[in-house]
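User: I want to check something. If I give you two sequences, will you return the structure for each one separately, not as a complex?

Assistant: Yes, each is folded on its own. Here is the first sequence with its structure:
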Amino acid sequence: MTVLTAIKTATPTASEAPSPGLWQLGIENQELTSRVARLAEQLDSDDPELRSQAISELEAALLQEEGHRQALDSKADSYCWVIEHLRGQAAYRQQQAKRLVELARSEEARADALEESLVLVLTRLQPSASRFSFPNHELTSRKSQAVEIDDEDALPAEWLALKTISQPDKAAIKEALKAGHSIPGAQLISRRSWRIR
């Protein structure tokens, strides 16, 4: 039995048993939401066939309710619950990622400060040393050269490298296309954005 079969609505007809109570409806909606969530997990699969199958089942589950407005609304509401949950999870994870990046930056800065302090003391005690060995670690160094620019404006033009960056002027292109001009390599596309509230 596919997930699509399991998603089928349980809306009773007039000839069936009396309408289920609120508790039963709540359970059915929760089960439907869980099934939608399981299909949504397949949308993240590396297998294109599995993703395509999940999309087909999700779409078919809604399309089979054509003409049954109440059942369609109930299913669509379950989809919205899953979408909101996924977006909430994404926002939370982004916040956590930002917090972890800040923690990593702070710990990296502390490690750099400690290393500078250690090197300062050791090189003061042994100015000619280029390596220090400890029971469990070794501190090594290598020489390198780098150019430090004190005042870029003071450099003669012959020592400046010119970089040219070109990119499409989308605002100007949009206005020209709206005015009826034809621009090779560009077209005006109309989109409608949706938002769940």
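And separately, the second sequence with its own structure:
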Amino acid sequence: MAYTKINEKEILTWLKENLSEERFNHSVGTAECAEELAEKYNLNKEKAYIAGLLHDCAKCFSNEKLKEIIDKHLKVEECEMLNYKTLHAPVSAYIAQKDFGVSDNEILSAIRWHTLGKQDMTTFEKIIFLADKIEPNTREKKYCSEIRSILTEPNGLNLALLRCYVETIKSLAKRELKICFKTIDIYNHLLDLKNVSDI
């Protein structure tokens, strides 16, 4: 593959060995969905496929291993450490670069921010974020259909992101998990964009 130092077969073998079966199926589904969205938005399909395939490569690392890698090699803001479920994102970007030879900043950034997101995401970052949420292999079909329907609307990308953030915040609150302030800031920003477009 043009953006990695090893071929797709070797990547899939590594993922099978280091992810649960469900997480492996999710990663393949995300890669295929990312490729589809890249075509829809006239973006590089190969880059999207790779980002989708590798976005969760550190997902099954122990929390201890994730924290160790972050402490030794990465700069992660304190608020990102509030919820263990998001620690794999920066580590997955690190592993993609270190073990798979990915040097493309667009791919690495999309992997890095696929859980929390960030303000003013690029279209490429947005489609990887969404592909993670709506891939058909493991995600709930009704929810996927709803998000895909939103994508057909004017300003569909931002509206789809807003819908995802609504569900994420509801889910975190229901489970009494801490919410990074970045999540709230992005939600507010997307809500502002929606309200402006409604005028």
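Because they were folded independently, the notes below concern the second chain alone. The domain at 8-198 is CATH 1.10.3210.10 (Hypothetical protein af1432). The CA atoms of residues 122 and 168 lie 20 Å apart.
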